[in-house]
Amino acid sequence: MTNKKEMRELILNIFNTRYACKGYDPEKKVSEEDFKVIMEAARLSPSSMGLEPWKFVLLNNKDIKEKIRPYAWGAEVSLAGASHFVLILARKPIDMKYDSDYIEYMMNDVQHFTDELRAVRKNKLKDFQEKDLKLLESERVFFEWVCRQTYIPLANMLTAAAMLGVDSTPMEGFNYDQVEKILIEEGVIDPEHFGLSCMIAFGYKNRDHRPKTRRKMEAVLEIIE
Ligand SMILES: Cc1cc2nc3c(=O)[nH]c(=O)nc-3n(C[C@H](O)[C@H](O)[C@H](O)COP(=O)(O)O)c2cc1C
Fold it and tell me: What cofactor is needed (predicted)?
């Protein structure tokens, strides 16, 4: 069992040595055991009211990867050599609105709330979506709220991969309209329920990283007494 001091060192070491991989060795594959753990880190991620507004797609199809490549500059090296390439999809407002079938399914079948508690939670969600976040004013604003949440599993996957010694790349460097169009045409995305939020790749690097650059703690943390 690691003690607190060792745990602190371990955490700092993981965050200091995680890099966005900018070149993959196509010969090196991530083991199924490691990939499963990385995906568990995604699945177990927190979300607003626990509504899990995402879906992950492991894209192995070479033809589809080739088709999206011209429109995904930020994914060039990952599409070429990464062992695993995952799309992170965000649910559309039709599913995430307080009165949708999906919300009913989540609160009933997954969260197992009683009828009474479901009614209370849905009312809370309605107020939250309508008044606090003002999501109902525009489909785009609503969808962006969902996309924001998908960056939590994205981050957890990056950290889980780093803990396992697996290199990874988070990606949003692509033309959303073009890439989404291809993924819809190829039957990867059902546009009624999902939109593309971001991507993540896993594998093993084939070149050294640039040394990590970050601002100092004093520049990013302000303490108000
Ligand atoms: C939301 C997000 C989107 C990113 N998109 C890309 C991308 O499309 N392609 C890429 O190679 N790197 C991408 N990166 C990686 C960043 O360039 C990298 O995290 C940053 O330069 C800091 O370096 P480090 O992660 O190695 O510490 C992205 C990172 C984040 C968090």
Answer: FMN
Smallest CA separation from ligand 1 atom 11, residue: 74
- Domain containing 47: what range? 21-206
CA 55 to chain centre: 9
Question: Structural domain tally of the chain?
Answer: 1
In a domain, 5, yes or no: no
Atom of ligand 1 nearest to the CA of 151: 1
Residue closest via CA to ligand 1's atom 15 equals 20
Virtual torsion, Cα 180, 182, 186, 187, nearest 10 deg: 20
In the chain, the percentage of residues whose pLDDT exceeds 70 is 100
pLDDT in tens, 127-172: 999 999 999 999 999 999 999 999 999 999 999 999 999 999 999 9
Of all atoms in ligand 1, which is nearest to the CA of residue 210? 26
3 domain residue, yes or no: no
CATH code where residue 151 lies: 3.40.109.10
